[in-house]
Structure formats: structure tokens, C-alpha cells
Amino acid sequence: MKQEIxxxxxxxxxxxxxxxxxxxxxxxxxxxxxxxxFDAGAVNVSIDxxxxxxxxxxxxxxxxxQVMLTLGGHRRTQTTRLGMYGVGAKNxxxxxxQLLSISTVCDHVRR
Length: 111
Prior knowledge:
Blueprint (H helix, E strand, L loop, with lengths): L12 H8 L5 H14 L5 E5 L3 E5 L7 H5 L18 H9 L8 E2 L2 E2 L1
Antiparallel strand pairs: 1-2, 3-4
């Protein structure tokens, strides 16, 4: 007789702490955000390296911030070519700064 077992495989907090200590270069972090813009179908991407790093694009936006901010969260679209695992932007945000602000417009809704 088979016994069904359910396991909780939620990542341990130590994984998140380890990722936060990951030494990501400024260029690698910036590349992750630009990659996400291209995955969202952007044709134009602008980068402002003033007081804060700002990446703006004309892509389709993010319909689900929960997926965007959850470790391993990933949503493929027809234009997705680069991202596959849902960790790049999270690693970049953790490695590059203490504060992340996201503004996205998807289907005429600002989030």
C-alpha cells in the first residue's frame, strides 16, 4: 500500500541570507534589470545612474508583483528569451542596494 507524503519545500531563510551576501557586480545587477525589460518586449530602455539606479523601458510591464518579488517566481511570456529561473532580478536587488522601488504599468493598470 502506497503512502502519500506531502513535503513543505519552502526555501529556508538561510538561502535568502546567502543570496543577499552574493557579491554581484554593478554591471551584472544592471544587466539583470535590462534583461527583464527585454523579456517584457521592450524596444527602448533608458538607464539613469543618478542618486538612484533607475531603469525605464517600454515593455509590457509586470501583471503580478508577487511573482516578480517571490524567490523563484517566474512568469514566461511570448517575449521571454533570457530569464528562466526567477532569481536574477531578486539577486540584483539584494546585491545592489537596501531599497527597491518598482513602478510598472500593465494593461493600463499602474502597480
